[in-house]
Amino acid sequence: MATSNKPISLAGPLDADVQRTVELNKFLVEAGLYESADESARREEVLGELDKIVKDWVKQLTSQRGYTDQMVEEANAVLFTFGSYRLGVHGPGADIDTLCVGPSYVNREEDFFIVLHDILAQNEEVTQLQPVPDAHVPVMKFKFHGISIDLLYASVSLLVVPSDLDISQEAVLYDIDEATVRSLTGCRVADQILRLVPNIESFRTTLRCLKHWARRRGVYSNVTGFLGGVNWALLVARVCQLYPNAVPSMLVSRFFRVFTQWRWPTPVMLCAIEEEELGFPVWDPRKNPRDRTHHMPIITPAYPCMNSSYNVSTSTLRVMIEQFQFGNKICQEIEMNKASWSALFEPFNFFEAYKNYLQVDIIAEDDEDLRLWKGWVESRLRQLTLKIERDTYGKLQCHPYPYEYADPSRQCAHCAFFMGLSRKEGVKIQEGQQFDIRGTVDEFRHEINMYMFWKPGMELAVSHVRRKEIPAYVFPEGYKRPRPQRHLNHQHHSDKNDPGNGSPDSQLKRKHDSTGIDDTEPCRSVKRASISPVHPKTSSPRSGNVSDEPISNNQQKVTSNASGGSQDSPGSGNQDQTKCSSSSHASEKSLDSVASGSKCVKIEAVCSGDVTSKHVDCISPVKDSTAPTVAVSTTLKRVAEKVVLELVGSESIGGNNAELLQIAETDMGNVLVENLHFGGNGVPQSGLPEELES
């Protein structure tokens, strides 16, 4: 799969570009994106201590297994860094991604996750130790001297690991399993990125800028279906290749210009994809049908080349394209001296952008249980987005917001995530049409129940909230929601540019007081009644607890709990309370119409369940809004839909076609076009930009 690194433009900066770069650097410093010299030195000291620990660990194991004194003396482990720290773009308080490479006789399953784990657990400076052996990339997470560490392990086919081991060489991949390959990939990719960019300092400044922008705009989260650190690094590196002589202010502008017009799923690649004789799978839509379903392929440059952004869905891609368009517009204004850099980093007003939301409340007995439970639920939220896309045939779109919020009035450990809901633009939907996703949310609930380390008190509630009912704790101190204007059609208009809206940097999360939990006191919440999970080991869901009966806009149904009590549904402007208890109550409530211009889509969410069922039902399109809403969810239907999705894909790049990426360059009056020729199986034959004279 060939590619070329021929640049789009070799132009260097003008005086105005240099000045804008100075202003950009000043903004990044004032935004606190650079750590102090003292903190940098402290990180080096911590890495030095950790390096000594893993070396002593390997020597200890070598001695215990009866190797010679010389082998014990030569026994070694090497510590590498990757991620933002290796790329040189980490900020204050950022974690350090580390990889320990050890000899062939020191394994991951027992020696790393048991022996080394116990050594770390006995160290007083190690806190929040969390082994995750079953992860796609097995990792041990902890804090060491207050600095967050993600530690991976790779056992290579060497009896003695040399101190100057070069893991960028393919030889390091001989005779190892795929989990070890994945553990090595982070370091190999980081090193390759730094080799392939024309100017490392310009790359670092641009990447630091765009990572900050992505966080402010709510599109920085691999686990939620957006892009993570390595994805942003690869996109920025590609723009650096296309404009090798540009300074950071130019690169930021060109970044948005390029990716606003990029024709996804055309892959972004820094170099050609090479297939070695080692036989590890690489990203190749010609051979792998699943690769054809990827919506936003961003290919890693080190063997084995993989798509680093397979988590992206149609909904999250849509959100990112909209944000790229926003960035492109602001950068144009900056270049015309109509805006400053601060305008680019205005937080996205997520809670003013939609009329309907899903709220996912996560509850646990204490902070430690919440940390574990939240990690599991958050890792599955992307599946809820995919399932809603699948079951509504893409007509109902989700915007998962990758930030968590905590209700400070609750006396239990709590956090909440939100998803914006909207119909797909351009799709003809009958007036009053409803989306029933009760079965979808129920399926999601069952997957969440499969958590292996569930404990009593770990609960989940999924419910619908209107924009006017968003709980107050997600907004900054003193923020007052704008009162919606009343119109004859009762539609609500929002000001999406309201700077007072909740934002990641202003009110991402407020800590709750987890001490002194009193079972007799209610755990305060502004949520309406919803269903909290009960682990399948303690109770089983009761069948037939989903009502297929349609509910009108002015009807609200309250279900009683096991003791005969009922729970009211709070309004938007008050602080009605509910206890933190597994005996949750159910409510059924219809949603407001979702309007966009002259087209209106009615979304209905029904929440139904009982004490024993951890059941949450909410939002398959129906042709007649007056007919009963029936949730059709059979195994056969799900299997059929899955087969169709895998064979076709919503944006498959298969077939005999050609994609044109037109990058409209205003500089020097040139029009630049990137022709991407596809073979019979949809694989790009040539993805190189061609400079055309007007």
UniProtKB/TrEMBL annotation:
<dbReference type="GO" id="GO:0046872">
    <property type="term" value="F:metal ion binding"/>
</dbReference>
<feature type="domain" description="Poly(A) polymerase nucleotidyltransferase">
    <location>
        <begin position="6"/>
        <end position="197"/>
    </location>
</feature>
<dbReference type="InterPro" id="IPR011068">
    <property type="entry name" value="NuclTrfase_I-like_C"/>
</dbReference>
<dbReference type="InterPro" id="IPR007010">
    <property type="entry name" value="PolA_pol_RNA-bd_dom"/>
</dbReference>
<dbReference type="GO" id="GO:0005524">
    <property type="term" value="F:ATP binding"/>
</dbReference>
<dbReference type="InterPro" id="IPR043519">
    <property type="entry name" value="NT_sf"/>
</dbReference>
<dbReference type="GO" id="GO:0006397">
    <property type="term" value="P:mRNA processing"/>
</dbReference>
<keyword id="KW-0539">Nucleus</keyword>
<feature type="compositionally biased region" description="Polar residues">
    <location>
        <begin position="537"/>
        <end position="580"/>
    </location>
</feature>
<feature type="domain" description="Poly(A) polymerase RNA-binding">
    <location>
        <begin position="349"/>
        <end position="407"/>
    </location>
</feature>
<keyword id="KW-0460">Magnesium</keyword>
<keyword id="KW-0547">Nucleotide-binding</keyword>
<comment type="similarity">
    <text>Belongs to the poly(A) polymerase family.</text>
</comment>
<protein>
    <recommendedName>
        <fullName>polynucleotide adenylyltransferase</fullName>
        <ecNumber>2.7.7.19</ecNumber>
    </recommendedName>
</protein>
<dbReference type="Pfam" id="PF04926">
    <property type="entry name" value="PAP_RNA-bind"/>
</dbReference>
<dbReference type="GO" id="GO:0031123">
    <property type="term" value="P:RNA 3'-end processing"/>
</dbReference>
<feature type="domain" description="Poly(A) polymerase central">
    <location>
        <begin position="202"/>
        <end position="346"/>
    </location>
</feature>
<dbReference type="GO" id="GO:0005634">
    <property type="term" value="C:nucleus"/>
</dbReference>
<feature type="compositionally biased region" description="Basic residues">
    <location>
        <begin position="481"/>
        <end position="491"/>
    </location>
</feature>
<keyword id="KW-0479">Metal-binding</keyword>
<feature type="domain" description="Poly(A) polymerase RNA-binding">
    <location>
        <begin position="409"/>
        <end position="483"/>
    </location>
</feature>
<dbReference type="GO" id="GO:0003723">
    <property type="term" value="F:RNA binding"/>
</dbReference>
<keyword id="KW-0067">ATP-binding</keyword>
<dbReference type="GO" id="GO:1990817">
    <property type="term" value="F:poly(A) RNA polymerase activity"/>
</dbReference>
<dbReference type="InterPro" id="IPR048840">
    <property type="entry name" value="PolA_pol_NTPase"/>
</dbReference>
<dbReference type="Pfam" id="PF20750">
    <property type="entry name" value="PAP_NTPase"/>
</dbReference>
<keyword id="KW-0507">mRNA processing</keyword>
<dbReference type="Pfam" id="PF04928">
    <property type="entry name" value="PAP_central"/>
</dbReference>
<dbReference type="InterPro" id="IPR007012">
    <property type="entry name" value="PolA_pol_cen_dom"/>
</dbReference>
<feature type="region of interest" description="Disordered">
    <location>
        <begin position="476"/>
        <end position="594"/>
    </location>
</feature>
<keyword id="KW-0808">Transferase</keyword>
